[in-house]
Each structure stands twice: as structure tokens, then as C-alpha cells.
Amino acid sequence: MNIIQISDCHLFADKEKVGYNHINPYQSLQTILLEISACKIDILLVTGDLSGDASEASYHHFEQLFAASNLECELRILPGNHDSIQHLLSVFSESMLWLNSPLEFCNIHWKVHLLNTQFQGTLGNISKKELDELQQQLQNDADTYHVIAVHHHPIDCNGWMDKHEWVNRQDFTQLVESFPNVKLVVYGHIHSDIETLQNGVLYLACPSTCWQWANTESFGVSDLKPGFRVIELDDNAQFNHVIKRIN
Fold first, then answer.
1. Number of domains in the chain
2. For the chain, percent of residues with pLDDT exceeding 90
3. Where residue 49 sits, what CATH number does that domain have?
4. Which residues, other chains included, contact 51 with Cβ-Cβ below 8 Å and sequence gap of 6+?
5. What is the pLDDT of residues 199-212, one digit of tens each?
6. pLDDT by residue (tens digit) across 19-68?
7. Are 76 and 66 in contact (CB under 8 A)?
8. Is the dihedral of CA 189, 192, 193, 194 positive or negative?
9. Quick one: CA torsion of 26, 32, 38, 44, rounded to 10 degrees?
10. pLDDT value for 106
11. What angle separates helix 56-69 from helix 25-36, to the nearest 10 degrees?
12. Nearest 5°: CA angle at 211, between 6 and 189?
């Protein structure tokens, strides 16, 4: 099972608009999707901030770029802090969104859980209801391996993006780290590739498909190129992952 994670596309209503480092997010996503089309892929997972201005047009831009890429895979989208849930629901079918969770696969013993951490402004939060549902699912599927996908960073990145935190992230990490069958937590938000093993769970941050943040004490932009993460799950609780960046 091959999952490709992209994150923080920050598309604008204006396809010609550029952002940090003079990057045009529409063009960089177009290039990313072209790179992805050469990969073996079952699911394209978008971990939030598909839009940069919450405009309805930005979601239609993504829809058109995905269609033009001719990717023959399932699409799953989580909301980020910049996203309009109203527009996500109106532009994409429910089967393409986080509402269709967890994802189950007939040929491997993995499930992928899609959670909504959108809260206030740039801050994240997960509801008690959603945490309770996750706990029940993990208890019911103790013989299954689990990947959990969120937008906000569940552990500190030790940089300026920690000001834009997930306010009850400790409730989440305490829960998932109490289940040894949770192997991976993947997330976006910080526009950076960070890998952290904590209490048996591997936390993987994903690069943005546009500009990259510098993980520094004060605000900064990195010169690293836009990228994406490839995750391969096998049937023995094993997985491989790699970051790829465009030239």
C-alpha cells in the first residue's frame, strides 16, 4: 500500500499570485503532481491547508489540477487552519474528505485515521468526542496497525511555529502512545520535514508543496524546495518512507 502525503498547498483564488520565496503555489503544486504521477500510488493524502486564502476558487483549482494529473488513486483531504470547511464540503465529495475515516484495506492489516484539528485561527484542537472515538477504534482493532493523519503538529518542533500550536496535543499523544499498534502519526502545518520517534510512535512532518518554513527561533523561510512524502505500508507492521523534492 503506497500513500503519498502532500500538505500546505496554500492555493490562492488568483492562480498567478506568488508567496514567500517568490513561489507560485499553483505552479509548484502542478509540478508536484506531475512528479507524483510517476510514482506507484494508492492514496493521495492532503494533510490540510489546501487553500491559502479560504476562497472557493482555490479549491476548484486543486480539483482541476488533480483531474489534469490523471492520478488513478483515491484522494483524502483533511482541513487545516487556513481551510474553509464549508468550501471543502461543497467542492469535494464526502468520500474524498476526512469524514470517511478510518480507511481500511482488504489486503493488509493497516488502518489510516483522518482527524480534524482545526480550531481557532492558527491554533489546533481535537474534540473529546473525536478522541473518544479514536480510542474506541484503537481498542477494537488491537490486531491491526494504525496510521493517524492530522494537520497541526502534535509534538513541539522547537521553532517559531510552536507559537501556532495544537493546544490539547498532549491528550492526543498520551492516547496514541498508549497503543503499541499505532506506528505512525503524519502531519503538516510546519512546512518542514521533521522525523521524531517518541514512545514507540514515529511522528513525521511533511514539507509544503510551496514554500518551506525555517525551523528557527524567529520567523524564517527555508531555501529547501517544495516536496512530498512517500509512505509504503506492508503486511508485517513494517513501513518505509522517503521525502522527495522537486528540482
1. 1
2. 91
3. 3.60.21.10
4. 9, 10, 11, 12, 58, 59, 62, 82, 83, 84, 87
5. 999 999 999 999 99
6. 999 999 999 999 999 999 988 899 999 999 999 999 999 999 999 999 99
7. no
8. negative
9. -90
10. 66
11. 30
12. 55
> What is the domain range of residue 120?
2-245
Residues 6+ apart with CB under 8 A from 169: 124, 152, 153, 154, 155
Around 49, how many Cα atoms within 13 Å sit in the side-chain half-sphere?
28
Identify whether the C-beta of residue 213 lies closer than 8 Å to the C-beta of residue 161: yes
Strand partners, 124: 118, 166
pLDDT-based confidence at residue 235 (cuts at 50, 70, 90): confident
- Give the model confidence (pLDDT) of 120-147 as tens digits: 999 999 999 999 999 999 999 988 999 9
Question: What SS3 string covers the chain?
Answer: CEEEEECCCCECCCCCCCCHHHCCHHHHHHHHHHHHCCCCCCEEEEECCCECCCCHHHHHHHHHHHHHHCCCCEEEEECCCCCCHHHHHHHCCHHHECCCCCEECCCCCEEEEECCCECCCCCECCCHHHHHHHHHHHHHCCCCEEEEECCCCCCCCCCHHHHCCECCHHHHHHHHCCCCCEEEEEECCCCCCCEEEECCEEEEECCCCCCEECCCCCCCEECCCCEEEEEEECCCCCEEEEEEECC
Across the range 170-196, mean pLDDT stands at 97
Radius of gyration of the chain (CA): 17
Please tell me the least confidently modeled range out of 45-54, 63-72, 95-104, 193-202. 95-104
The set of cell numbers assigned to 113 is 485515521
